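ingest -> validate -> predict -> emit
validate: passed (alphabet ok, no gaps, 398 aa)
predict: started
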Amino acid sequence: MTLPSPEVITTARRRIVLAPFGRHTRYMLSGYLRNVFTVLSILLAIALTIDLWPQFQTVAAHGSSGLLAFWSVVRFAGLRAPGLIAPLLPFATFIGVVWTEVAHTQSGERMLVWNSGRAPLDCLTPALILGLLLGAADFTMDAFLGPASMGIQMHERLGRDGEALDRGTLSKPAWIALPDGLLKASIQFGPPPVLHDLAVFRRDADGRLLEVDTAPIALLDADSGLWRLSNGQYWQATNTQAPRVAFGGATRQTMIPFQQRDVALSLNPLWLSWYNLVPQYIPLSVLHRLAHSDDIPDPHGQYATRYYVVIAEAFLPTGMALLAASLAMLFLAYGTSAPALIGIVFAGYTAHFAIKAGLILGQNGFIPPLLAGFTVPVLLFAATAAVLAICARQARGR
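emit:
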């Protein structure tokens, strides 16, 4: 028997190269997509049932009867879907990839791949493409489709959130802390925002009251940045010559009537237009401006954290897919033992939980917003690199 020469062996080995769109990639990618969408459909069905059931009758009432009521429920479910899918997609990606990898191992296909000489890193191409596709979809839903669908619900007063967050009516009287005092007003959201039945209380550095301004309405002058109060009254601690009128119950204070008065309020009109909305419902461009504004009463952390989390969601499905595929190559290389499978699923759930925990910690100021958004994606890629290094050492030992 004549053995092949070393040159022939070297040539045969060189034929096994990375093929980003080869047969193996297309086959695995189709399996990933099929199983991810199956898992996502199950999770979405559960989430929609929980979300729709308490408000089903209210939503159906927007349609008169019959088919119109059915269409109202279907349309509402479609409007709710982007906001429900976006946080579920990274975890669904992880489970879908693990599901495909289990089938890959049990069918014996993984053994054929190993025997072909394909390196572990080459086997990650389908997971990488899957993550890029789903990352773009997740970012689009959370940054644009989710806020847009909530805007429709608020405009039409559709569902519980739509009614509670309706921007077409005056808000309830709100107390807003200012750098130099306190503001009480009802907000007409606009844009531009308008303040109704307002009272402004200014204080000095020691907390002593310096000035009070009251008016039924205040409009923002875009050129000067001042708020124009109409048909109101004001009081100043330094004024002792003005006529005395009743103010504040039985206590008599010095108040001066006016037809128009311009006052400076450290209030961002953009923030007023989006007042009382959780950052989840605010478009990405507005989040960016609020996160970098110096004249909003709210802590910047909640806007900046949400902004960075949305940006990071473009990378989360990629990190989850790569980690799931690499863990399967390490622990499911030759069989699917229950402990290994449970451990892999638990790792994916831990990552899913860490995403939520980072958002909560960042919005409440416990960690910096940038850290809250990008810690989990960085850890996912680092864990994938570590698992691949172990796989490569095992491959060299085979």
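The beta strands are 174-178, 181-188, 194-203, 209-220, 227-236, 244-246, 252-254, 256-263.
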